[in-house]
Design goal:
Oligomer: single chain
Mean pLDDT: 91
Low-confidence stretches: none
Number of strands: 8
Helix content: 10-25%
Largest sheet: 8 strands, antiparallel
Order of helices and strands: EEEHEEEEEH
Number of domains: 1
CATH architecture: Roll
Radius of gyration: 13 Å
Strand content: 25-35%
Length: 115
């Protein structure tokens, strides 16, 4: 894995640090799916990301990564957040399929009531 010198893109799979955390929020260094477009990420220094865990709990907001993904596990769409990607030692790990990205964004849209 290589550290990113430029902003990540929507659909990238990356490793980044989710600390600090509070309560039941996901923690530690882990893989994540980037949701926000590169233009936003470059302009702000932030990314919108969903953490990925290897141990799903069967939540309807979990989206399984497909077999072509370089990372295995489930994307926690209900724990999306914005993070300062420059300060969290972000490393590129691969790309997610359009189908998986679309499923994650559909679940987030249900959470925030996008129409």
């Amino acid at each position: 894995m290589k550290h990113l010198a430029s902003a990540p893109e929507r659909g990238d799979l990356v490793w980044l640090d989710f600390m600090p955390q509070s309560g039941r929020e996901i923690d530690k260094r882990r893989p994540a799916l980037i949701l926000s477009p590169k233009a936003f990420n470059s302009a702000t220094g932030f990314v919108a990301a969903c953490p990925i865990t290897s141990k799903g709990r069967g939540s309807k907001f979990e989206v399984a990564l497909d077999d072509i993904s370089p990372i295995s596990g489930v994307i926690l769409s209900h724990q999306f957040k914005t993070l300062d990607w420059r300060s969290r030692e972000i490393q590129f790990a691969g790309k997610v399929s359009k189908e998986v990205l679309n499923e994650v964004t559909a679940r987030i849209a249900a959470i925030v009531c996008f129409e």
